[in-house]
Amino acid sequence: MKSIRLPQFTLAPQAAAVRRLFRPADLAVGLGTLTLLYVVARVGAQSLVKFSPPEIIPSIGLDPRNLPNYAARSTLRMFIALGFSTLFTFIYGYAAARSRRAERVLIPLLDILQSVPVLGFLSVTVTAFIALFRGSLLGLEAASIFAIFTGQAWNMTFSFYQSLRSVPGELDEMATLYRLSLWERFTRLELPAAAIGLVWNGMMSFGGGWFFLAASESISVLNRQYTLPGLGSYVAAAVQAKDLRALGWAIAVMILLVVLIDQFFWKPLVTLADRYKLEMTAGEERRFWVVELWRAAALPRYFEKLLSPLFGESDRWLAARTRPRAEIGGKTNSRSSDWIFNTIVIAISAALLLAAIRFVLSGVGVHEVLRATLLGLATCARVLVLIVVSTLVWTPIGVAIGFSPRLARLSQPIVQIFASFPANFLFPFATLAFLKLGVSLNWGSMLLMALGAQWYLLFNVIGGAQSIPYDLREMAASLQLRGVRRWKALIGPGIFASWVTGAITASGGAWNASIVSELVSWGNTTLRADGLGAYIAEATAKGDWPRIVLGVGLMSVFVVGLNRLLWRRLYDVAERRYQLG
Amino acid sequence: MMWQKGDISSADLLNMLNGNSLLSAEHISKTFPLPAGGEQTVLENVSLRVEPGEVVALLGRSGSGKSTLLRILAGLIRPSRGQVLRKGEELRGPNPDTAMVFQSFALLPWLTVQENAELGLTARGVQKQAAEEAALHALQMVGLEGFEGAYPKELSGGMRQRVGFARAFVMKPDVLMMDEPFSALDVLTAENLRGEISDLWERGVFPSRSIVLVTHNIEEAVLLADRIVILGANPGVIRGELRVEMPRPRDRKASRFGALVDYVYTVMTNPGAPVADLPSAQPSRRFPMLPHARVGGISGLLEIIHDRGGREDLPNLADNLRLEIDDLLPAVDASAMLGFATVSQGDVNITEAGREFATAGVHRSHQIFQEQLLKNVPLVKTVLGMLEQKRDGRIGKEFLLDILDEHFSDTEAQRQFETLVDWGRYAQLFEYDSDEEKLYKVEAETEARE
């Protein structure tokens, strides 16, 4: 039988006997679970039952009393998307890790998918899903969920794939020799080994997902405005009505949501995932109040006991049906068939690429391609300036936080909320300021892009500073290294690798954000910057397919190019020269 | 029921009559493709039989393919040529008659001790109750009763490996595979656990019928094995085998024990020497493999031998330094290759050059090293020749690795390169710029300045 952890405190025998039936913790756990079920059921019913043809746009009421309902609907979308992302992660990551051939196609494809600006695809997905669920709000729901999914899935999949690939060799041999079935191998070895990476990546991706939620709930595609009731569309409506009070309410609710989900979902998961460390060092167990409450309550254990025979049976059933083959792969001298496989893959890719190029050229011509490329260079310049400025601003602050445990403890929750908070909720305020001060969006859009992207830099710099061994810091102090010398000798090289990771993520985020940052509005006034982001946004609104394909394709080329030419190289330098330990 | 050592069933009798062993490797070769094209041969035409009731030790240095051979017998790796027979039938997948104890324990940290021990049985579909009982029994055998609910990370290294043993015992395998099971433990813990395992075997309650043990620890092999199979390296071949006919429990202090250990040392330190009556054919190489010893290690060893009168018994030396033979051998081999020492009968003798090197001052020692290096290591001359040829006096690391790749595996080529750079730098023959990844000649003026 699976052993159950004892509660962290012991009760006097009599008290234990009395409380065994019902504990105060049970009241909290029980009520909490019931409330959650009720909300999910009610909100879920709304999107399923309320049929409204897409010609009739659901209206958004700006009364703050509507906000809880909108917030719940948005949150449900986020979690459904997370569910799909997880499922996708398992299937895709597993296939890539298990099959050498699948790996050779799936991993480069994932690399491309990761670089493609998700928001540029909203037009495609919205039309497709509306056609799929004709006459129902479900199409819009699905499109929104899909947008969030595309923002979450790739990161999680990469993390899972890498965890699977780095399972220690002897553990893998052990599983083979002791003939663990595929199910047992997955549940006993692979999933636990991937758990920590998956949870942390899921948490980060979920935070990023709010951005896509906000962007996808209210969107004009093919000359038509689509609105899906939720927090994002509430903000859009408030912007349209120039209602600052409503915006304030939306932001307050958003912060509350981020905090609640962090406390009741991610923190408990992170605490639980700690069990699945591969290192054998006995460390201090992370403690967290929700988890303690859950452990102190008797109800969860009662249900676990009730359900454990069922779980045990299904576990055995699945294990029995996924027995490994008695033979293992023989000689792998299939170089010729590898060659054929590669040729086919390359041929298909080339054909797709050619078709896309032909489509674009026949639609708009070479001149348009050159124009779009110039716009791309403009956006590229913005992204680079943003990275440089964010680095200058946040590196000293991040290092200061990383070097001081007290500062780190105080600032961590705040930074986390900022990172999860969808930057596009703040866009209206910035837009208003630009209008009042007469700032051109050509400059202002950089600030908008930075609102979301800079946190990745800060996060990683803090982590990098924390990972510099204390010995080295003491060494620097004893040699009286100060100021520039200290930065050149110790801090710079020490945080370089983390900085590169942060910069890659920030750059990716900024490219994506450019689509919503280079074209903003307040009421009926619209501000526009010259850039590839605005180009895609306008093409999407008009439903100009050749331009959509051209814009999205070009942006992907820019992102991949920047990755290959700049970030990958810096990363190699970091790995070769500045690895600590 | 529990198998007892030496038990012979009627099925065994039938197998023996047919000439079948419990497990046998028939003319096994294993090659891995090399990155530069071509392939590296890890095992070459290896045949081995495992009979019921015996302990076979596979002894060899790193690169002898002993772990690969063990994994081929366990069915984890398919041989490139030849076949493995299990009671007369060809093995095509994980061998169900075997269980393995791993060097790094290979425990799942998130399962309890008991869940880890049960893993193989539940995977076989054994009922929960039965699996639980078997696991408890095995844990008892290895002295872990009371720890069933603990997690591996709460245990010490020695206790973790006990869990590894219990997990294998539970399977009641015909052949228990042990892959350097004690080498990740500290000396005392290893000694203790080794003693308990041999005790179980001697008392006849060991839950497998035969054992195949991979080790590089000579004493361990002599202590536990009935038969020591000695493997030669690059490519792995069986150089020969020695029967250990000593009564159990074996006494380390017995003169026969010491003599055998000494003899095995002699064999191990002379790759060309015949083992027992079997002559071995070592293929000659254009570039003999450089032992992975740093110059500091070589001179350290020579200084110790010099201090002890210029001659030292290897087992004794290893013991005094608390080193495994694998840690000591590279420096010994390098000394022999460079003409600083000779090795015979398990003894290292320092040569005149070695004595001079060990006692010379810093400047002189660079010179002596340079002379010996040029005289004895053809690869160095090749590299110097190439540096002469190039107009800018530089060659890239990749270029050299490409050449080494034809003779060694990818990682081995890398290590060869590192050793070469270390030696060449010390001999002040060439320098290496790790930023540009280029070797260049040390100019005469730098030598003159010194």
Any chance you could write out the topology, listing elements then pairs?
The complex is a heterodimer of chains A (581) and B (450).
Chain A lengths: L12 H7 L4 H26 L17 H32 L1 H16 L6 H11 L5 H28 L3 H9 L4 H36 E4 L2 E4 L3 H10 L3 H30 L15 H8 L2 H23 L13 H30 L1 H38 L1 H16 L6 H11 L3 H27 L2 H9 L4 H35 L1 E4 L2 E4 L3 H11 L2 H33 L4
Antiparallel strand pairs in A: 1-2, 3-4
Helix pairs in contact in A: 2-3, 3-4, 3-6, 3-8, 3-10, 4-6, 5-6, 6-8, 8-9, 8-10, 9-10, 13-21, 14-15, 14-17, 14-19, 14-21, 15-17, 16-17, 17-19, 19-20, 19-21, 20-21
Chain B lengths: L9 H8 L5 E11 L5 E12 L4 E6 L5 H8 L7 E6 L2 E2 L7 E4 L11 H11 L4 H14 L15 H13 L5 E5 L7 H16 L7 E6 L2 H7 L2 E6 L4 E7 L11 H15 L25 H13 L3 E3 H8 L3 H13 L3 E4 L2 E4 L1 H8 L2 H15 L1 H12 L4 E3 H9 L4 H17 L3 E4 L4 E4 L2 H6 L1
Parallel strand pairs in B: 3-8, 3-9, 6-7, 7-8
Antiparallel strand pairs in B: 1-2, 1-4, 4-5, 9-10, 11-13, 12-13, 14-16, 15-16
Helix pairs in contact in B: 3-4, 3-5, 4-5, 7-8, 9-11, 9-12, 12-13, 15-16
Distance separating the two termini of chain A: 41 Å
* Highest-level CATH class of the largest domain in chain B: Alpha Beta
The CATH class of the largest domain in chain A, by name, is: Mainly Alpha
Number of domains of chain B: 2
The strand count of chain B comes to 16
**CATH superfamily membership of the largest domain in chain A:** MetI-like
Q: What class do helices, strands and sheet pairing of chain B give?
A: alpha/beta
The overall average pLDDT of chain B, rounded, is 84
- The N- to C-terminal Cα distance of chain B equals 76 Å
Major sheet description of chain B: 6 strands, mixed
* Rg of chain A: 26 Å
Number of strands of chain A: 4
Radius of gyration of chain B: 25 Å
The spatial strand order of the largest sheet of chain A comes to 1-2
Greatest chain-chain contact = A-B, 39 and 40 residues
Figure out the total of helices of chain B. Answer: 17
- Unreliable spans of chain B: 1-6, 277-284, 445-450
Please write the string of helix (H) and strand (E) elements of chain A. Answer: HHHHHHHHEEHHHHHHHHHHHEEHH
